[in-house]
Specification:
The protein is α/β, with parallel strands linked by helices. Among the domains are: 94 residues, Ubiquitin-like (UB roll), CATH 3.10.20.740; 179 residues, Dimethylsulfoxide Reductase, domain 2 (3-Layer(aba) Sandwich); 94 residues, Barwin-like endoglucanases, CATH 2.40.40. 27% of the residues lie in helices and 17% in strands. The protein is globular. It binds iron/sulfur cluster (2 copies) and FE2/S2 (inorganic) cluster.
Length: 909
Amino acid sequence: MATIYIDNKPYDVAAGKNLLEACLTLGLDVPYFCYHPAMGSIGACRQCAVKVYRDENDTKGKLFMSCMEQVRDGMRVSVADMEAKEFRAHVIGWLMTNHPHDCAVCDEGGSCHLQDMTVMTGHNYRQYSFEKRTYRNQYLGPFLNHEMNRCIQCYRCVRYYKDYAGGKDLDVFAAHNHLYFGRHEDGVLESEFSGNLAEVCPTGVFTDKTLKQHYTRKWDLTTAPSVCHHCSLGCNTIAGERYGTLRNITNRYNGEVNGYFLCDRGRFGYEHVNSLSRIRKPLVRSQLPEATDKYLALKAAASAVSAGRVIGIGSPRASLESNYVLKTLVGEDNFHHGVSDMEHDLVDLALRILKEGATPTPSLREVEKADAVFILGEDLTNTAPMLALAVRQAVRQKPLLEQVSEANIPVWQDAAVRELVQTERGPLFSATFTETKLDDLATKTYFASPEAIARLGYAVAHNICLDCPPVEGLKKEEKKLAGQIADALLAAKNPLIISGTHSGNERVLKAAANIADALCAREKAAGILLTVPECNSMGLAMLGGHKLESALEAVLNGYADTVIILENDLYRRAGEATVDSFFKACKQVIVLDHLHNRTTETAGILLPAGPFAESDGTLINNEGRAQRFYQVYPTAEDIQESWRWLSELGTIAAHDEISHWHGYDDILRAIVIELPAFRGIEAVTPTSEFRIAGQKIPRASHRFSGRTSMLANINVSEPKPPEDPDSPLSYTMEGYRGQPPSSMIPFFWAPGWNSVQATNKYQQEVGGHLKGGDPGVRLISPAGTGEFSTAVPQNFLPLEDHLFMLPLYHTFGSEELSMYSLPIMELAPEPYVALNAADAMRLKLEDGQPLHFTIAGQTYDLPVKTSPNIPSGTAGLPIGLPSVPFAELPAWAILNRNLKWKKQPQTTF
Ligand code: SF4
Ligand code: SF4
Ligand code: FES
């Protein structure tokens, strides 16, 4: 710690920080633009000037940019000094000379850092009365608007996009007073993290184009803390509503998980909530009219449940609470996971590795600190995008730890650090079956079949610890690579192994676990991070349940005749013929979901479930972190959370346990009492009884407007606001005005800070943890009771007239719910099959020509896309695209007989 004097008052601050960071951490209002806690300082905008004095005898002092000045013990500073104030006012005056002052029509207005800073510095009136410089704006794709006239040349956008996120197609052009921030020509921004520009840019140059479709000022949104439902990482979000529709998703800072950023799927994939395909009324298809009211539907469902032999099929995209109530309703023996059998086994294995292995799993924040990384079988940008962004920061660790600390440069001195480090990177090894967006950062890439990736992994583990089994028959270069990876991991302080379920191969996971545990056996502070398929895959695995296959068998062999399906389209989980015959054999099908799909079409009774924005619930992310998401606005019509439907169904059916539950808190309490795996989950967030100074926490800001007029077309008297019995949040602006517990922050706001920069005020220190600790409770810790796996796989051998079809994932296209958003759909690829370029030549196929093949009886006829890296004898099929029928991959595809395919006898991969 260091003691510094700001305007003659002593403060204790962390030594080594920059002065701006220290001032902001102390809660002082120092204006700034170009500094960003995740990206450090470059001293570009000159907005953060303060006076620094040599010692207590110095009365004159000098102006310094506070973001560029390191805190020293005994330092004397003045923020209030008149010269510093005037300087800051002049700076903003210059920055505003070309700004169009179009706040009234700017989407950023009201949540704009530039507006806040003009007010903070006293630049209240327009001073420049000459012609302004203007630019032509660009088309940047479906996510972002571009309005360059508003730019204040702070450089944050290019520093974020290029330096932080590794994008290549956004830059700064021209010079002097004509800087242009954009692409070299109009076109879709290529980065999967482009949406963060809307929050990084301190003014309205880059704004959310999806919000523009149904624009609402930030202060008019009703917002609630939420958790992204589009992959297993559980990034924290804020979801905003107006007039009963979801308007936008913005980042919710969590110092351990997503920090300041989100991926574009998480930010823009929300339109399923507003979709025309929403199920809004309960249906009982045996009656006319089919649409009915809530009580008749529940009565019909309860009598079907009482009369039938019932099984339940849960879902990895439904909350823990909904899955738990379904499991309780149908009984443990009759509860099945609604995922493919392969996925069921792989997620189960991932959970066992995290629980029984010796290696802890890191948070995303900790991933950024890893100084050597080995990725096995995962294309992270497409399966867990924010993890790829964290790995991009991790490759900087080694040079930061070595060169930068040796040169005695503080890490926040971003320009100096990047100048010193240049393209130097720490060790990153990537073993995948086709090219990924992290390849350009990798020390070495290894493109091979899942079996070969697993073999390489086992060999690396053996190199680290001789207790791990050796691998026979490796090629010379593979042996060398295994040695190189092992050496790099052993030389690191915080080596990290990343793998997951997406390669569809359990040996890949086991090899990853062997390496991590071998590193622990050598007393390294290693970490293992495993991605799983969906937002609550880990929660479902922890809850326990049978395979989908046994659910199908239970109905087909007459053990059961009635099924309750929770938020799940079974046609995305098993082959069409199998699911068809399952539904045919069911006497009654009860489905709860929020969107129409092929499964809901088969439902005899259909209950409209609330999507995430209309529900409360808990998700368990890939690291075993339980996180609560809150309902943003009360549900219309008969829509309600699945757990509420199922509780009411249980109560009507006089289920012993369920009929005693009266709301969300009771269900969570029952989970804690019944299931030891979830002990501690009660600490995720306070119960619904929680109050601060006797008040609830408002979902709307005190600036919320039009409250009475919003409903004036219905009634000029304002109705009583709806109540929320399940949480301490109110739906209106009434309530406690101070900061709530970190798990319940509905928006970031502080006096004078209307933009997202208000986050500073909620953190223990700027860029660090939230006050009171970051949201979420970790439920899994490694017991160290597992043993090394000895199941080294055989080499992959191509088969004549076959291709081993591997699953390929796409950030935009593979995930079910985000594909209801038009901008996401626009960026999803057309269906294709990826083929090794040499194999395509042997098959006499060129790009775009159709390849006919069959997998498990399902025929496919898809255009070929050649890839130089996908191993010969394999091919890749995009997963999850609506027009590509389900296949449980990897699997052998039989080629159409007319194709002359001969395996290469000597090839093994
Ligand atoms: S576009 Fe925005 S972030 Fe980029 S330099 Fe201009 S004001 Fe700064
Ligand atoms: S990385 Fe995953 S959880 Fe995070 S925002 Fe993207 S889709 Fe959502
Ligand atoms: S924030 Fe210090 S110069 Fe820009």
